[in-house]
């Protein structure tokens, strides 16, 4: 695989060549992701949950994001690296948003991901005009978990669907280069994908997006108790690791 850049990802949308994205937080997994020629790696703030063991993504700091981006960057040569702007790193002002986005780019990210619509359009405009590529994120935006009352599917009625569609359009118009559509109806994701020129990356949003993203631990089956309807598990890492550890312990004891 050659180096994946933004123009390459945009060209893939035009050619209807689906974009594969996975989250990644460390160099060991990043090496395997790179070997599998996955086109893009998302250093997601989901690390708050799957790495730190928190209940949601709200308690991730910009320093933690920088640390994980640096680790991933060391093992990735060709995949396009997107990094999440964590909660609190861009809500206060455009100035703080730019300062924190620059930190992630200096750590090795090639684009930053921000959650929201109209309320972040000014920041998206400033970032993209300053040469910092932006990936938007609409639908179930985990940093709004307290507003939503949980990790709940969005777009349940006409009003919500219109809000999500308008948010996606607004983020594209502000200059975003990509957008994540999370946990929304398939039909709405398809409609947004047709309406936008930038690639859409879906999670729990059906097959008609330009690409798909999954949390790496989820797709590898790391947690037997996490089984959302959209998740296809490609291996049972829970079982594999548990039996390897049991075999190791048995060897040590004997
Ligand atoms: O933080 C994350 O991993 C994400 C993806 C699930 C889209 O935002």
Task: Describe what you observe in this structure.
The structure is a single chain. With 254 residues, the chain is an alpha/beta fold. It has one domain (6-219): Phosphoenolpyruvate-binding domains (TIM Barrel), CATH 3.20.20. 43% of the residues lie in helices and 14% in strands. The protein has eleven helices and eight strands. It has helices at 6-14, 27-35, 47-50, 62-75, 94-107, 121-129, 145-148, 158-173, 186-195, 216-219, 237-253, and strands at 19-23, 40-43, 80-84, 111-113, 134-139, 178-182, 200-203, 211-214. It has an eight-stranded parallel barrel with strand order 1-2-3-4-5-6-7-8, surrounded by six helices. α4 (62-75) packs parallel to α5 and α8 runs parallel beside α9 (186-195). The radius of gyration is 18 Å and the shape is globular. 3-methyl-2-oxobutanoic acid (KIV) binds at residues 23, 42, 44-46, 84, 180, 182, 203, 213, 215.
Short key terms for the protein model shown above:
254 residues; 11 helices; alpha/beta; TIM Barrel; 8 strands; eight-stranded parallel barrel; globular; binds 3-methyl-2-oxobutanoic acid
């Amino acid at each position: 695989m050659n180096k994946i850049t933004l123009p390459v990802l945009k060209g893939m949308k035009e050619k209807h060549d689906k974009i594969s994205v996975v989250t990644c937080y460390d160099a060991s997994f990043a090496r395997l992701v790179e070997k599998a020629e996955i086109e893009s790696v998302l250093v997601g703030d989901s690390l708050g949950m799957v790495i730190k063991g928190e209940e949601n993504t709200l308690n991730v700091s910009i320093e933690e994001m920088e640390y994980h981006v640096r680790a991933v960057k060391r093992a990735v040569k060709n995949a396009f690296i997107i990094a999440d702007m964590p909660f609190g790193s861009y809500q206060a002002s455009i100035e703080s948003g730019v300062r924190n986005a620059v930190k992630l780019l200096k750590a090795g990210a090639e684009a930053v991901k921000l959650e929201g619509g109209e309320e972040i359009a000014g920041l998206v405009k400033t970032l993209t005009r300053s040469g910092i590529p932006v990936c938007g994120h609409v639908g179930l935006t985990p940093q709004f978990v307290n507003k939503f009352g949980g990790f709940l599917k969005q777009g349940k009625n006409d009003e919500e669907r219109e809000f999500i569609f308008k948010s996606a359009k607004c983020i594209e118009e502000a200059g975003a280069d990509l957008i994540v559509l999370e946990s929304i109806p398939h039909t709405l994701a398809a409609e947004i994908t047709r309406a936008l020129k930038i690639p859409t990356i879906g999670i729990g949003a059906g097959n008609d997006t330009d690409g798909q993203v999954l949390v790496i631990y989820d797709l590898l089956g790391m947690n037997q108790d996490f089984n959302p309807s959209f998740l296809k598990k490609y291996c049972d890492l829970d079982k594999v690791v548990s039996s390897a550890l049991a075999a190791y312990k048995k060897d040590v004891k004997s």
